Amino acid sequence: MYNTLLTSLEDGIFTITINRPDKMNALNTNVMDDLSKVMDEVANNNEIKSAIITGSGAKAFVAGADISEFTGLDHQQGLALAKKGQDIFFKIERSTKPVIAAVNGFALGGGCELAMACHFRLASDNAKFGQPEVNLGLIPGYGGTQRLVHLIGKGRAIELLLTADMVDANTALQYGLVNHVVPHAELLDKCKSILQKINSKAPVAVGYCIAAANAAATPKGYEEEIFGFGECFSTEDVKEGTTAFLEKRKANFKGK
What we know:
Layout: E1 5-10, E2 13-18, H1 29-44, E3 50-55, E4 60-62, H2 75-93, E5 99-103, E6 106-108, H3 110-117, E7 120-124, E8 128-130, H4 144-152, H5 154-163, E9 166-168, H6 169-175, E10 180-182, H7 187-199, H8 203-214, H9 220-232, H10 236-246
Parallel strand pairs: 2-3, 3-5, 4-6, 5-7, 6-8, 7-10
Antiparallel strand pairs: 1-2, 8-9
């Protein structure tokens, strides 16, 4: 049913595994389309009470977006890319059924944004989080600038956004980016244990709790992010940043 996802349903818990281990589960067009479709399945299948999103393999949840798809994009295409990504991640955030991220390794760029779109996050002890888009002459475009601020506070968020530094699982726990850190082998079991408890509660009330918590954030910031993401594609720096990444060399940014 899905080209890039593995799915399984057990006791009302739907496990969604992004399955591109040879690419560190990087988000490309096919993955994003599959995520959109799978969230429709979560919404429409009454047997699904809650969901887990994770990545295949032991190294990465999602190591980022597939940068090869960014090369050659212009301003309007950049706007459209960010808008599509945000719309898909809003499907996750606005799901009336709980969706948690089981972060089993690197969650960088779009992978960190995907994890943050879930209602909360659990991490294995080898997980690392970051928003390294400035290294490409870009900013996060799938909600990262907004959700990171909401989750860890403006000061810490801006430092991570501007430095492109990664944080490890225990630092993410300290910052409030994740709820629990467990050994890698125990990650999915811990997620399922929490969801079993949630699944025993009133589903309508659970859905309204999610909606009310989401209402604490304003959508205006997301519009500003789309604008900034699209503007970046008008710069020479984004061409240099993405080319340097693909050529495995250090980027030489000119600020234009």
